Amino acid sequence: MSVFTGLLYFAIASLALLTSRFEGGLAFIWGANALLMAEMLTARMRSWPRLLLSCMVASALATALFGIGALAAVPMAFINAGEALVVAYICRRLGVGRQIAGSMRELSIFVFALAGVANVLAGIGAGLVVAVLLDGNFPHIWLQWYSGHVLGGLICTPLLLILLQGEVGHWARQARPIERLEAFGLLSAFALCSWWIFYRVDYPMLFASLLPLVLIAFRIGYAGSAAAIVILALIGGTATMTGHGPLRLVAADIPERIQFFQFYLALSFLLSVPVAAELNSRRRLIRMLRDSEARYRAFAEHSGDGVINLSIDGIIQYVSPSAVDQIGIDADRLLGQAAVDLIDPEYRPFAIVTHRRALAHPGEAHAVEFRPNRPDNDFDWYEMLVRAVLDEQGRAIGVISTVRDISRHKARQRALHQAAAQDALTGADSRRALQEKLDDQIARVAAGGRACLLLIDIDHFKSVNDRHGHAAGDRVLVGFVERLRQALRGTGSIGRLGGEEFAVLLPDVDLERAERICEHLRTRVGVRPFPLGNGEDIAITFSAGLVELDGSASAATLMEAADKALYAAKGSGRNCLRFAA
Q: Which residue ranges traverse the bilayer (predicted)?
């Protein structure tokens, strides 16, 4: 590939030297370096040395055969290669892609690298070489080099990039037949207009080509603008070099007219190609937005989660079909309604805070759980994930919310919580649930209430398991709790601490009444034996320790005091009650 590039470079450089070199000096038209720059911008950097070497050889041969001689061949080869290397390196370092006219930023970087750095330095080198070898005027030589290389690079490099990347073929494959016909008509009309300007009109009408150039940029795009510039260069360049066209009216020689034409061509390029590139960029953006909207609608309309768009003040602007199904209200009635009206009043403050947080922190997603505002919402729960929608300036203009039905999740949570709060065998409160209730009662006592805690241990329960088996022991435990529950009649909470040890939390009672309740419980437990399920019955008793809750003592301290009282009851012969010290 590098050999072919070198051959093509030699052909372009030789043609420029043969057709635009006057009075033994430098060529006024130089597009060979544009080829090298286009190749380097599209190739990997590891292939640059081969490209540079092949083009340096081609440059040296062209300069020796058709240029200013063999002595200048090698220095001019290094200068030409250096120009292309500087431009390609700066563009790559500053993130310019393969389309240097793809945006104004990329075009600006390319122009800066070409006109502001590379050819300022390369012109100095070329001026020194030519001034020494031909005894020429350095400023004049530098200006000639600078204008020829800058204008040639500016015009030819983007056009060559279009060809190397297959932009024209891509456009031809994508365009509809009517679009191809329109492009052919516009370019043919532009060619006729250019021929008329440069061959048939006796007045300076160069400006007449600008309107069709802009029209082509709008209608055809990037590839059309490039084709129009090529047409203008071929027709106008031939006319100028042969002494035709409006530039013949300029009081200057042919080389200066050629330079002026290159300047005119560069201005035409800067007018049309960036406009076309910007339009192409906008078309791509529109296609991306259209595709994005299609994906969004497909997601919104077929997802199980509901999607709702809200304005800044919380008014519904869009609601997906799944959200309509979840809410149970027609979309026409939902649009324009305040979303907060759909939420149970108890949870509205949380939803409002979440909405405001999403607007204040656009880059974050915020979640809130709520119940709907409808009569049958005892078991209905929803989760809403909210994120701000931004405009081009990054300002929040609303929010997008995804709503998910989490009723089953909440039901599982309730079931798990209930399972964790109850003893699986007896149905009494678990140790953790009893602890929570005890903490609540301590807080109530600290506020002026009264309550007592009764610890109970079934007497000689181990012998029940040993003689009759654990199944019989389980039946005794279940029946024991049931009799305690019947005797309490909802005035206390029963919790199982482990094995045959239980706790009874008695709210709103003092020690005297708690003692009476304990004796009542003893009577109900001993009123009749417990069936063991094997045809046998067994009578049981229990020992108990009682403590009155103190709002300044911790739950652990009170439990320890009641436990000491229980052990005192066991030590006193069992089947009795003892008070905590």
A: 6-30, 51-71, 77-95, 107-134, 146-169, 181-199, 261-280
